[in-house]
Design a protein that fits this description.
With about 250 residues, the protein is mainly alpha-helical. The protein has three domains: about 80 residues; about 55 residues, no CATH class; about 55 residues, no CATH class. It has eleven helices and three strands, in the order αααααααβββαααα. The protein has a three-stranded antiparallel β-sheet, with no helix packed on it. A hairpin with a 5-residue loop joins strand 2 and strand 3.
């Protein structure tokens, strides 16, 4: 069996488990084709590292993403036979630097919608205005917005049924829901840190840390949190919970 055939079987298995494997699938097939072209029938650390870093102009983060694709495939093959080596996690050090979130004010959203309306093709202009407005109102990812159909929308309840990463479905309210919810918890003196996992699940985030990251851009929340830390403030709510803070 060629390495590309083995890669296609691996992708079929992963997709049957709900993983999209879109971009990573294309990378994996490229890696497998490279192995076939050089006559390799197993994955070595040296070959995986050379393939991952073949574009010397790319960033270390890009190299790490490619190496992660090769690592998953190598781990799979290793369960079928010891010929393929397990690729270490720390071969390419590249600390993750997430850009700080940015909440667009109303005037900037209006400017984007206006600019979209200047597209010369009327249908394309209307479609782009709709997409920009939808993302602004709901906070959807672009792929989630483009994947919506009519039966995914409840105008009565003001929510969308969205299928996100790894095929996970969730109900999405208007975009300010998260900020308003947490601000209300602060105002009521609730234990925000204890409640955050519930909000993360509702919003479809991978965990509370992702929700905290998005909320960092909301000045109202920062001021509420600061008030809880001022001298004389009450750090515990009536149930004995501790004041909220970003997980250490």
């Amino acid at each position: 069996m060629s390495m590309r055939d083995a890669a296609e079987q691996y992708l079929e298995l992963r997709r049957s488990l709900g993983y999209a494997m879109a971009g990573s699938g294309r990378m994996l097939l490229d890696f497998a084709s490279m192995l076939d072209s050089t006559g390799q029938r197993a994955i070595t650390i040296e070959a995986a590292l050379a393939w991952a870093t073949e574009n010397k102009a790319a960033t270390p983060g890009h190299w790490r993403a490619r190496l992660s694709v090769a690592r998953g495939f190598a781990r799979h093959l290793n369960t079928l036979g010891p010929a393929s080596q397990i690729i270490p996690q720390d071969l390419i050090p590249a600390p993750v630097r997430r850009k700080p979130p940015y909440l667009y004010p109303a005037d900037e959203i209006a400017a984007l919608v206006h600019a979209a309306g200047l597209i010369t093709t009327p249908a394309a202009a209307a479609g782009m205005q709709a997409v920009v407005s939808l993302i602004a109102a709901s906070g959807l990812r672009l792929g989630e917005a483009l994947g919506l159909d009519r039966d995914h929308v409840s105008l009565r309840d003001g929510v969308l049924m969205v299928t996100g990463k790894n095929g996970q479905a969730r109900m999405v309210p208007r975009h300010t829901f998260a900020v308003e919810t947490v601000a209300g918890w602060y105002r009521d003196g609730r234990d925000v840190q204890a409640h955050m996992p519930l909000l993360s699940v509702f919003l479809g985030h991978s965990g509370p840390e992702a929700t905290y990251w998005y909320l960092e851009a909301a000045p109202a929340l920062l001021s509420q949190a600061a008030a809880r830390l001022e001298p004389g403030s009450q750090p515990h709510d009536q149930r004995g919970g501790t004041a909220a803070g970003r997980p250490s």
